[in-house]
What does this fold into?
Amino acid sequence: MPFTVAIDGPAAAGKGTVARAVAEATGFAHLDTGLLYRAVGLAALEGADPVEAARSLTPGALEDGRLRGPEVAQAASRVAADPAVRAALLEMQRRFARREGGAVLDGRDIGTAVCPEAEVKLFVTASDVTRAERRWRELRAAGREVGLEETLRELRARDARDAGREAAPLRIAPDAVVLDTTAMGIDEAVAAALRVVRERLGR
Ligand code: CDP
It folds into this structure.
C-alpha cells in the first residue's frame, strides 16, 4: 500500500537524519531529494546545461562524494529556482513517493508540490544559528576547513533563495506538523517524528 511521509524544512534542519530514522523504523524506502538538486548543481558547475542534466540524471550521480560540499549546495539552490529543472525531476519523485511499501522523501517542496496528498507531512526547522552550527560541525568532521560565520552566511543566502523563488518555494504546508528542533537533541526529534507517523499509520 502506498504511504508517503513528506519531510520539508530549511537547510541543515535535521530533515535527513529524521527521514532516515523514520525509514529505518517503518521499513519505508527513503529519497533525499536534495541530492537530486545537488547532482544537477554539480553538473552545472562542470558546465552542463542544468535542464539536460536533470533529464538525464542517473542513480550513480547521487553517490558522488562532492555533493555534500557548500559550493555544490549553493549551485543546487541556484538550479532549483529554474522551473524547467524542477519539472524534469518531478515525475520520478512522485513515482518514488507512491511506490508499494511506503516512502519517506525529504526536501523543500515535498508536502506542498511533489506530494500534496502525502499521508504525513512534517516541517523540520531550527533557528538559523543552530542550523549553521550543526552544518559547520558536519563539514569540519568531514575534513573541510570552513568558518562558522561563512557557514551561517551561506545558509542564510540559500534559505532566502529557497523561500523567495517563484517555483515551489520553501513553505510550511497548511496541514504539516512543525517540529522545531532548536532545543531538541536528535533522539528527541526522531521520537517526535515517529509519534506523528505511527499515529497516522495506526501502529
Ligand atoms: O542538506 P541541506 O538541507 O543543506 O540541503 P539539501 O536538502 O541537500 O538541498 C540542497 C538545495 O536543493 C536546497 O537549498 C534547495 O535549493 C534545493 N532543493 C529543492 O529546491 N527542493 C527539494 N525538494 C530539495 C532540495
